[in-house]
Amino acid sequence: MSSLRRRLLGAILVPLAVVGTQTACSSSDTGGSGATGGGTYTIWDPYPQYDGSSEWVQLLSKCGTDAGVTVKRAGYDTSDLTNKALLAAQQGNSPDVLIVDNPVVSTLAEAGVLTTTQENKLDTGAISPNLLAAGTIAGKSYGVPIGANTLALYYNKAVLQAAGVDIATIKDWPSLTTALGKVKAAGKKGITFSAIGTEEGSFQFLPWYWGSGADLRKLDSPDAVSALQLWTDWLKQGYAPNSVINNTQTTSWQEFATGGYAFAENGTWQLGNAKKAGFEYGIIPVPAKGGGTAPAPTGGEFVSIPVQKDTARYEVSKKIVQCLTSTDNSYTTVSTLNYVAPTTAVQDKQVAANPELKVWVDAVKAAKGRTSDDLGTKYPKISQPMWTAVQAALSGSKSPADALAAAQTAAAAATK
Fold first, then answer.
1. Do residues 370 and 356 lie in contact, with contact meaning Cβ atoms separated by under 8 Å?
2. Mutual orientation of helices 400-414 and 222-236 as an angle, nearest 10°?
3. How far is CA 55 from CA 331, 345, 383, in A?
4. What is the sign of the dihedral through the CA atoms of 208, 210, 214 and 217?
5. Which pairing describes strands 70-75 and 40-45: parallel, antiparallel, or unpaired?
6. pLDDT by residue (tens digit) across 372-396?
7. Residue 81 CA neighbour count, 13 Å, CB half
8. CA angle 305, 103, 263 (to 5 degrees)
9. What is the pLDDT of residues 113-141, one digit of tens each?
10. 3-class DSSP state of 18
11. Beta 301-304 vs 144-145: how paired, if at all?
12. Could you give the CA distance from residue 295 to residue 406 in angstroms, rounded to a whole number?
C-alpha cells in the first residue's frame, strides 16, 4: 500500500469531532473529475440546501463557463462531504474543487488530499492572515477562505433598559456579570448560550477560553480555569439557565427569541431570525476577561484544489477558485451565505451596504481558527476533553479546576 493510501485510510478511520455551521440532508453522489482540457470540472460543497436556481449554484456555473468548462456540482452535509472526499482521494477520483468547513482542512491536508497554494499558485495576498491561518499547517496554506462567521453577544434592548443597564458599560467580564445581576434583580433572565457536549459547546466556550488568555495546549492553566469558573458561577447565581448544558446554538437562540433574556451568545447566521424576533436588539463583541474583544472561533469554509493525477487540470481549477473569490463575486457569495468576507475590500463593501455588519466584521478581525497555532488535527482531540470538562463543571459533578485537570490529562495522551 502506498504512503498516500495509508494516510488516507488512517484519516478515514479517525472519527471527526468537528461540525459545520451549516448542515442539511445530503444529495446523491456525483463523482469523477471529468475530462482534461475543457469538458467537465466537478465541485463539491457543503451547501446541499442550495439548488440549481440559487445564486450560489448559478455563480458556480458562471465561473465554469468563464473558465471554458462545464461545472458539475454536488452538495453534501459537512461530515458526509469529509468522508466522501477522503474516499474519493483514495480511489483517485477527487473533485477538481472542494469546499469544506475550515477545521476539516487540516484533516484532508494531513491525509494528502489537498494541494498547497504554493503548488496551485492561488494568490492569498489579500486574505486576512487570521482567517488564512485556519487552513495553514507548518507554514503551508491549503486553500482560501470563502468567508467567515463567528460569535458575538446579541442583547435585548428592552430587558436591559428595564434593568437599568447601559450597554456601553459592558467592557469586560466583571461589568458583564454585574449587568447580569441587575437583570436578574429586575425579574428578567440573564444570558443563554450553548454548552452541549459536542463541538458546538466547545465553539461557544472558546471566546471565553481565549478571552481569558488561555492556550489550547494547556487546558488546566489558571486562565482556563477562570473561564470555566465564569460560566459555572453564572449558573449557580441564576444568571444563565441550566438548559445551557443541553442547548444547541439553535435551542439557545429559541430561548433568546422568547424576549425574556438580556443576552444570547450566537452567530452571524442568526441575523435573519433576529430581525423577525419582534423586539429591538443590538450586538456587541464577546468581551475579553480584562477588556477588549475576545478572540472568537471562526466558522466558514475553505475553497481548496484536491490532488489530481493530471496536474494540468490545476490551471482551470485555479481559474474557477479565483472567480469564486474575486472581489465582486465574493460579495455575492458572502451575502448569500451570511458570511463576513475574508478580504478588507469586500468587508468594507459589506459594511457600506449594511452598517449593522460592522460589529461582525470587527469580531471576525479579532477571531482565530480552531486549528490555528499549528494545532491542525490535534484540535478535535483537545476539543472533546474540553467540552467534557465544561459539561462536568456546569453539571456540578466536578469543580472547574478538577474538570480541566482531567481534560488536560486526556488531551495530552491523545495528542502525543
1. no
2. 130
3. 12, 21, 35
4. positive
5. parallel
6. 988 999 999 999 999 999 999 999 9
7. 31
8. 135
9. 999 999 999 999 999 999 999 999 989 99
10. coil
11. antiparallel
12. 25
